[in-house]
Amino acid sequence: MKLSELGEFELIRRITANFPKPPEDVLEGIGDDCAVIRLPDDSVLLVTTDLLIDRKHFISALISPRQLGRKSMIVNLSDIAAMGGFAHSFFVSIAIPPGFDVEYIDEIYSGFRELAVTAGIVLLGGDTTGSETDLTISITLLGRAEKGKFLLRKGAQVGDCVQVSGPLGGSAAGLYMLRTGIPRDIAPALLSTHEEPPLRLATGQMLAGISGITAMIDISDGLLQDLGHICRAGGVGASIDISRIPLPVDLPEFCRSLDLDPTDWMLSGGEDYELCWTVHPDHEQEALRAAFDSGAHQAATIGQITAEQTITAHIKERRIQTDRIGYDHFPRSS
Asked: DSSP of 192-231, one letter per residue?
């Protein structure tokens, strides 16, 4: 069987089926944004790791090394944010092809350092090696959370509101600009969104303190894809009103000028690194106020959790129904 016949998430399930169950101190293993391990003081250790490869996750010729370092850190910090946790420390492994200057690598680590200072975390180690082909970066990030004050993907209940921390679709639009050679000054904010996504650590931490929040995830693979993880984990579905999804400032005019429809970018573009969560209706406004106070000034309610185990998205007469729309590292061919 080829990977394209299986898909990324079925591959993960196939791999994990062949390993024993984790011990009792592992509260959450594979299947959430972070692994959650109970510590002796009843707080929890959060562990996440991500791998980024040139030409797959970034294009080194189209992003500065400093931005690449920052974005690599955001990818991991976003997972900690999705759990409502506090980042602690990180490890970096990097595989460097021939021809890269030392100064280029210095700039990548400068980007790492900027985000590390912002998040208050330290570098504890890693590995360096050569690569025959592509630049590859792998970061493992450790975090912590208090007992009972972290959020998982599972837990959404029928009737819950679906909320997001900020605008969606800007990163995919920025990537489109880079790939098609559209000048940067046409929509600089969209490029900025793609190259330097927001850091929502404070937002996740504030939301974790609200009792009505039932589930949370970060939007890395697209809204429908990642909301789909919440729905599958809770055995529920969702209905999304596309007109309520907050948009980047430049996106509507950018799309009008090029006769483009931003809907697919909003729903499935990915790499927004905003948070998506579900909340009991009684706590809807409390959650939005907390998000706003944390700096997520465009947080919004965009839909509702439903009993039907599917996701629908609608705007006027257009209706989309899907179990999975978004980024897949091994997209199915059939």
From this structure: HHHHS----HHHHHHHHT-TTEEEEEE-SS-HHHHHHHHH
Q: What is the pLDDT of residue 19?
A: 85
Measure the CA angle with vertex 216, ends 202 and 291; round to 5°. Answer: 35
pLDDT band at 30 (very low <50, low <70, confident <90, very high): confident
* pLDDT class of 7 with cuts at 50, 70, 90: confident
Q: Do residues 327 and 4 make contact, with C-beta atoms less than 8 angstroms apart?
A: no
CATH 3.90.650.10 maps onto the chain at: 161-322
**Backbone region of residue 124 per phi and psi (left: phi > 0; alpha: psi in -120 to 50; beta: other values):** alpha
Q: Is 161-322 CATH 1.10.10.10?
A: no
Q: What is the CA radius of gyration of the chain?
A: 19
Spatial distance between the Cα atoms of 198 and 158, rounded to a whole number of angstroms: 30
Question: How far is residue 309 from each of residues 98, 109, 323, measured CA to CA in Å?
Answer: 49, 44, 8
In the chain, CATH 3.30.1330.10 covers 3-145
Q: Is the pTM of this model over 0.70?
A: yes
Which DSSP state fits 311?
A: E
**How does residue 322 score in pLDDT terms, banded at 50, 70 and 90?**
low
Q: Contact at 8 Å (CB) between 182 and 249?
A: no
Of 150, 140, 168, 31, residue with least CA distance to 76:
140
Whether residue 326 is predicted with pLDDT greater than 50 in this model: the reply is: no
Q: Are 300 and 165 in contact (CB under 8 A)?
A: no
- What fold does the segment set 3-145 form as a domain? 60s Ribosomal Protein L30; Chain: A; (3.30.1330)
